[in-house]
Amino acid sequence: MWKTKTGLYRERITANGRTKILSARNKVDLMLKVAQYKEVTPTFGETAEMWRESKDVSPGTWRCYNAPFNQIMDYFGEKRLNEITPKDVQRYLNQLSMSYKSTLTRKGLISQIYDYAIVDLDMDIKNPCERVKVDTRLPRSTRSALTDEELAEIRKTTRDEFLLAPLILYTGMRCGEALALQYGDINYKDKTITISKSIYHQGNQPHLTTTKTKAGNRVVPLLPQLEALLPKGKASHFCIGGEEPITKSALAKRWEKWERTHGVHFDRHTIRHTYASILYESGIDVKSAQKLLGHANFQTTMDVYTHLSDQHLKESAQKLIDFMQ
Asked: Among 107, 108, 117, 102, which residue's Cα sits nearest to residue 49?
């Protein structure tokens, strides 16, 4: 396949002893023309590439899906879409030996690719994932909240230190959202913070983009603990970084320095999970929590709250056991 100076995509095809050059204005249309000319259903790999090109997602999101996507391509890539059966998908999932979430992610990707072929490309095929089940007995990873000691260290952060940890703790922002926060997003009069963008890194360089989902656009309260830490800055300046967003290397150095200073080590998303725990412990209802956390899916917030509820029940049971002893 090549692209002409006029912007057309072309490919030379040989079928039934004949050679022909096919043209189209985009890669998807050209791949469909090639399949129709050969009178065959496209392979899973060809369709998956078309699906990937059609998706409008951030590079950060693609990094999360890159490994699952490549694994699926290695397994199903050469097969024709109409040749893959529910049994094939079930066999693939069963041999993964992964967690419930990882297995569910791979099933979801396969299903999305088939839905794209059926709806967007108007292919007369069936989605083999519809009758496939993910074993609910598979191990499930759960994210723990910060310990009281770790939480105390974040609260000890002073104004002249790296403020990323308290910024996430007091707002519940994702790391990329915190890195994209500018002083102009803070309304000191109304005591609110508007979250509408995010930072992702390509190599070392930061790039400004929209939030992960539409639900990510939200307004959260400016807590007095955070207001006391934040210096006043120009509206266009970034709270983390200054005139420009922080680079990946600078982020790593400043974060590691902050960890050494406070004698802690944890994942930044754990701070966001702790924020969710604080919402739960504070009695914030699940719908309000969904808005504050920027979850697009209500079930995501419900899963977090259910996990916290189960954890709270276990802790209460242990207290009862200790008391009885």
From this structure: 117
